[in-house]
Amino acid sequence: MRNPFSHFDEAGQAVMVDVSAKASTSRVAVAQGEIQVCPEIMEAILAGGSAKGDVLGVARIAGIMACKRTWESIPLCHPLPISKCSLDFETQRQAGVIRAVCQVKTESKTGVEMEALHGVSVALLTVYDMCKAIDKRMVLRNIHLISKSGGKSGNFTFEGEDDA
User: Fold this and answer.
1) What positions carry a catalytic annotation?
2) d(CA 34, CA 144)
3) Which spans in 19-139 are helix H?
4) Among residues of the chain, what percentage have pLDDT more than 90?
5) Which of 11, 46, 63, 126 has the smallest C-beta neighbourhood within 10 Å, fewest atoms?
6) Where exactly are the structural domains of the chain?
7) Mean pLDDT along residues 67-83
């Protein structure tokens, strides 16, 4: 039986996947996640009045930086030449939800799913960090891959109740 885990060799040792024989192709991944916040945090963010400044602007930069450095946090990820990274936020004032959506593109031998997921995670953690003085009961949730294209495994689209 073939090992279903690509990051382990036949002996069960952790390995970085060998992509040397693969062709570089255009690859795109989109991930999203949410943070639930109290009304005071939502109002402070929307008014730009957080004591720490522009929360979503700082979180955007943190998420983009995280995408570019994913390989430093996830042990078996390859360093990749990121050709585009965008991170946007959607706010649902009444529901107290801030959604982060990250898109990452590359021309490479391996995909950028981890980069997109890492970008969303760090962006949401940055919102938490900047707002925890107001209320520490924020909840990060629904962090997942929305879509990916390119590469050997082809295209993927998440089909769930909360996709963007």
Assistant:
1) 129
2) 10
3) 39-47, 55-68, 70-73, 113-131
4) 74
5) 11
6) 25-153
7) 95
